[in-house]
Design brief:
alpha/beta; 9-stranded mixed β-sheet; 12 helices
Length: 364
């Protein structure tokens, strides 16, 4: 195989792995391709719920033909015993002659041991192929392992003067149907959707993925220090689709009991001033295994995450209308400081979506 071949098949493995985003946490979304003589014998990606792993699926497709073949894997094969045997051992048993991986797995249970296991068995191992592309796919998993918190994507849908509602609070709909459909697809690629208590009180949103067929629904999370939340549609559906509530120590016992009776899961976190500490919130979510969180506001929550440097990516949808100074701004107040101290992001994509403009930014 040439270096060009390695990149071509690794690109396919990365694309296959992306199919698992939002469906496999706390596991990484991995893809695997088994190739012999330029012919693809098996393809796989981590299945819903995190099992089986990509290598297991691809090897099952390839069968006995995998002997002497090359396996392209978007992340180092695991080497530890969990609910399933190690993938490194499965590759060895199948008679794979060469393994090409994009990244070493930073999980302390692996951390190079998978590659070492393969080499000890006489398998040729090539690493670092399309590492940057693979790392972008694994950003959430890598964040949880290295930083203890999930990756955060902040979504903002605004008028072109940065407003999310009129002065009277009317907000449906600022953006068009194409943009709203794409937001549902984005929800589906995240483990959880996060909003603040103000958004729940104002809109009573379902926060589900709709119009995408049968999909694994993300965890629906509300951050509210005092749990002063209405028992609306989220509470009514909490036994069918997970609802987690982040709250402070002072949340009333009656409110806690009401939500727990509805089927919600409560996570107490430290407070910072009148609100919840944003770093503590994300660490709590990381401890629960979440890797990718899609934050849809409101403005106070979004501002607190931005001010703490905890937003990894911003996705903006800008509509072709103006609401004026009386309209509700998309962000709450940020700490005053010099322009150089403002949260700054790098533009990585812009395109039209129906009658709106999508712009995607990554934290510098």
């Amino acid at each position: 195989m040439t270096a060009e071949d390695d990149r071509r098949f690794m690109a396919l493995a990365i694309a296959l792995g992306a199919r698992g985003l939002g469906r496999v946490w706390p596991n990484p979304a991995v893809g695997c391709v088994i190739v012999q003589g330029g012919r693809i014998l098996g393809r796989g990606w981590t299945q819903e719920g995190g099992r089986p792993h990509a290598e297991t699926v691809a090897l099952a497709q390839a069968g006995a033909a995998a002997r002497g073949a090359t396996a392209y894997v978007s992340l180092e094969p695991c080497s530890h015993h969990g609910r399933t045997p190690p993938c490194a051992d499965a590759l060895v048993s199948a008679g794979i002659a060469r393994v090409v991986s994009a990244l070493e797995d930073p999980d302390p249970r692996v951390a190079g041991r998978g590659h070492a296991r393969l080499r000890a068995a006489g398998i040729e191992v090539t690493t670092g192929v399309m590492a940057a592309e693979a790392a972008a796919l694994q950003a959430g998993f890598l964040s949880r392992i290295r930083l203890g918190r999930p990756m955060v994507t902040l979504k903002l849908a605004t008028s072109f003067d940065g407003r999310i509602a009129t002065a009277s609070g009317e907000s449906r709909w600022i953006t068009g149907p194409e943009a709203r459909h794409l937001v549902h697809a984005m929800r589906a690629r995240h483990d959880a959707v996060l909003v603040g208590g103000g958004t729940l009180r104002a809109d009573d949103p379902m926060l589900t993925v709709r119009g995408m067929g049968t999909v694994r629904q993300p965890v629906r999370i509300v951050a509210s220090a005092g749990l002063n939340l209405p028992l609306g549609r989220l509470a009514a559906s909490a036994r069918d689709i997970p609802v987690w509530l982040l709250h402070g120590e002072g949340a009333p016992r009656e409110a806690r009991a009401a939500w727990e009776s509805a089927g919600a899961r409560l996570l107490q976190v430290a407070q910072s001033g009148a609100g919840l500490d944003p770093a503590a919130m994300l660490l709590a979510l990381g401890q629960q295994g979440l890797t990718r969180v899609f934050c849809e506001g409101g403005g106070r929550l979004a501002a607190s995450l931005l001010a703490a440097g905890l937003v990894d990516e911003v996705i903006g949808f800008t509509a072709g209308l103006a609401l004026g100074a009386g309209g509700l701004p998309s962000l709450g107040a940020l700490p005053e400081g010099a322009l150089a101290e403002a949260p700054r992001f790098t533009l990585i994509e812009t395109r039209a979506v129906g009658g709106d403009v999508l712009h995607r930014w990554r934290r510098v």
